[in-house]
Design goal:
With 292 residues, the protein is mainly alpha-helical. The protein contains 16 helices and no strands.
């Protein structure tokens, strides 16, 4: 296989190069692969996982140091187009974000309904919950990192704009992707569309449930923060921290401790509560290397 990609591929992208050239470049730098072999491997992997598998064999440097991941994504789109990839999922979510922002801005070309339809079609092909969904999400979040804040805010923003149906559908996008947010994003929308008391009661219940996964409890806690329910968050937060610590989820525990510390700084608290928060900050920092 003699055809290869040239050094300008990073500027041009890979769409203009032949499949033979992409496979030839992989082979030239240490990863022997043909179309049949790629299709067989792609049935069990996502692009990032493939690139990680190829890394020990990869000899490319300079312009070709990052070629495996780009090649894996491009070959997925060509050779297994029916399989949803994290990049495709992120593209669909970014399209949803763009049309939601247009709808809020009353722009005439907003087509959130159409974007939801394309999203729903892809969701049916996502891997089931479990290890494969987790692998999909680990790669997916790298693509939407710059959009994460807007993505997280949009259910509430749509609700505030009087777009209840669209807000509920957008909340469901969150809950479909991230199981720990189930119910919580919908509760945020409910709270802004006439069901505040009931929605807050549900969030308090979920944050309080000892048997509930700590990440799911934190999602409920975070929703209460967004609803300015500081008193409830202070009352529940120590218990959610302790659950995260017991599960040795120290990154999560650190986030909770800092959240509580921020609330104490903003609104104050009695000395005993401040000591409890400080103790948890110290404990989290022992495991994460953080500082006050």
């Amino acid at each position: 296989m003699s055809a290869r990609v040239d050094k300008q591929w990073k500027d041009k992208g890979l769409t203009g190069y032949s499949t033979e050239a992409i496979l030839g470049t992989l082979s030239h730098y240490g990863v022997a692969m043909d179309e049949a072999g790629f299709k067989s491997t792609a049935g069990e992997k996502f692009p990032l996982e493939l690139a990680i598998d190829w890394k020990p064999k990869w000899k490319g440097t300079g312009q070709f140091a990052t070629f495996p991941y780009a090649a894996a994504n491009e070959l997925f789109s060509r050779l297994v187009p029916e399989k949803p990839t994290p990049m495709k999922g992120a593209t669909q979510v970014i399209e949803l974000i763009a049309h939601a922002l247009k709808l809020i801005g009353a722009q005439p070309d907003a087509d959130l309904t159409g974007a939801f339809g394309r999203w729903d079609a892809m969701v049916a092909q996502l891997p089931p919950k479990g290890d494969r969904r987790d692998a999909f999400l680990r790669e997916f979040v790298t693509f939407i990192e710059t959009w994460a804040k807007t993505f997280n805010e949009l259910p509430e923003r749509l609700a505030r704009a009087g777009k209840k149906d669209e807000a509920l559908r957008f909340a469901l996008v969150h809950e479909t992707l991230f199981a720990d947010r189930e119910g919580c994003m919908t509760a945020l929308v409910r709270a802004h569309t006439g069901e505040r008391e009931a929605a807050i009661a549900d969030l308090v219940k979920w944050a309080s449930e000892a048997a509930r996964d700590p990440y799911a409890r934190y999602s409920a806690l975070d929703a209460l923060v967004q609803l300015d329910e500081a008193t409830q968050v202070k009352a529940l937060g120590l218990g959610v921290f302790d659950a995260a610590a017991e599960a040795k989820s120290w990154g999560l525990a650190d986030s909770i401790a800092h959240l509580l510390g921020h609330l104490v700084q903003q609104g104050g608290a009695d000395p005993a509560y401040i000591r409890e928060v400080r103790a948890r900050l110290d404990r989290a920092h022992q495991h994460t290397g953080g500082h006050h």
